[in-house]
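Researcher: Following up on the earlier apo prediction. This time include the ligand. It's nicotinamide-adenine-dinucleotide, with the SMILES given after the sequence.
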Amino acid sequence: MSRFTGRVAIVTGAAGGIGLAACARFASEEALVVAVDLPSADLDAAVRAATEHGSAALAVGADVTSSDEVAGYVAAARDAFGRVDVLFNNAGIEGTLASTVDYPEDMWDRVIAVNLRGVWLGIKHTAPAIIASGGGAIVNTASVAGLQGSRGLSAYVASKHAVSGLTKSAGLELAPLGVRVNAVCPAPIETRMMRSLEASMRPDDADEARKTIAERLPMQRYGEPEEVAALVAFLASDDASYINAALYPIDGGSTAGR
Ligand SMILES: NC(=O)c1ccc[n+]([C@@H]2O[C@H](COP(=O)([O-])OP(=O)(O)OC[C@H]3O[C@@H](n4cnc5c(N)ncnc54)[C@H](O)[C@@H]3O)[C@@H](O)[C@H]2O)c1
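Model: Understood. Below is the ligand-bound prediction.
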């Protein structure tokens, strides 16, 4: 399948597990990939994943909480490839594990800044470029935490619920202009983020935490980043041409009930 031939896809959080898989997936379908992550992050793997598929890739260091830096990654994409068709608005942080009452204020602000402001700024600066290119799609990474609560993760849950709402409003506004906006809502996926949460839950035995979480899932395993990337590519492609302002769980059925 080559649904993105000649199209330009920006991926934020491209040095992380899901972002890296998305870079590889877009490139495997002949997209030109713009891999964005913090200036301190190592984007070599993302660029390699794209070029191994014979596609061109550009690495851009940017903090998604900075309006100037978000405008900068859009400008870099246009300078390098002349257009923008897709944004995978995916950078995010888990914050810390603490009760709502005890949650550290600085961490609360950081989680909201990265997970919500970063996604909003991505839409704000990228949508005009996509419209100028004749239309396209934005896929935000929410979470099952954007659909239901989770003890100890109130900042993360609040930020992801906000991404769900933002996806709906932006989708309503931008669809008439030719930009579809949707969100993916993953359950636990095999990336650094889950390793961090497992270690916070059971500092003495993170592997046991992982086992317990996996056993509670209907499919009794975490998802793979490539499984999320496949859904993202579908939503970003013309195969999803009538899908807009929608939230797509990719959770092995975990939000269907117990
Ligand atoms: N792994 C899971 O279980 C899971 C489940 C649901 C949703 N998600 C969401 O998926 C997305 C990707 O997470 P992941 O699992 O690949 O984790 P990850 O930690 O491997 O990747 C996240 C990436 O975002 C980058 N990032 C963080 N802050 C940034 C900033 N200010 N500017 C630019 N980049 C920044 C990090 O450097 C990292 O490379 C996140 O939004 C996360 O909340 C993950």
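Model: Residues 189-222 form one domain.
Researcher: Noted. I'll compare it with the apo version next.
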